[in-house]
Design a protein that fits this description.
Elements: H1 3-6, H2 15-26, H3 30-43, H4 48-61, H5 64-77, H6 82-94, H7 98-111, H8 116-128, H9 132-144, H10 150-156
Helix pairs in contact: 2-3, 2-4, 3-4, 4-5, 5-6, 6-7, 7-8, 8-9, 9-10
């Protein structure tokens, strides 16, 4: 998923731990990454980057409830972070919880009005729900703000 590109650094965790956890995750050693991120969280329970990284590793392990819990921790600790809402929205989408995904994408867009990917994924949800006018509007916004896939979706709906 897109989350891997969001895992840049865990600035409040000692660098070697953050670096090691990220390396483990990048190399597909997700359980070891979970263990490393968990140690980091035990040292600093407010480290949102560690929750984000552990959530991603849980997601890759198929432990979606744990991933959702970690992503929710990020949202609670950084309610004004559009990326946190977006990442949780992606997981809600994967879990088939479209209404919750739309809510998170909407908040992400409110926090960052030019958030092209949030418009795109919310448009996909509107399309799945049969709300084609809403989907077209979101795809148009996604195109304006630079999402590379939105124009094709818009064309498929006859709105391009």
């Amino acid at each position: 998923m897109i989350v891997s590109s969001l895992l840049v650094s865990c600035s409040t965790v000692p660098f070697h731990e953050a670096d090691n956890a990220q390396y483990l995750s990048d190399s597909g050693q997700y359980q070891q990454a979970v263990d490393m991120y968990s140690r980091s969280i035990n040292l600093d329970p407010y480290n949102v980057d560690a929750y984000l990284g552990r959530g991603y590793a849980y997601e890759k392990l198929g432990e979606y409830d744990k991933a959702l819990s970690d992503y929710t921790q990020v949202v609670q600790r950084k309610p004004d972070d559009p990326q946190a809402r977006f990442v949780r929205g992606l997981l809600y989408d994967y879990l088939g919880e479209t209404d919750k995904a739309i809510q998170d994408y909407t908040v992400a867009i409110e926090l960052k009005p030019g958030f092209a990917d949030a418009y795109y994924y919310r448009g996909m949800d509107w399309e799945r729900l049969g709300k084609i006018d809403n989907a077209r509007a979101d795809y148009r916004s996604a195109v304006i703000y630079g999402n590379a896939n939105a124009q094709a979706r818009l064309n498929a709906l006859g709105g391009g």
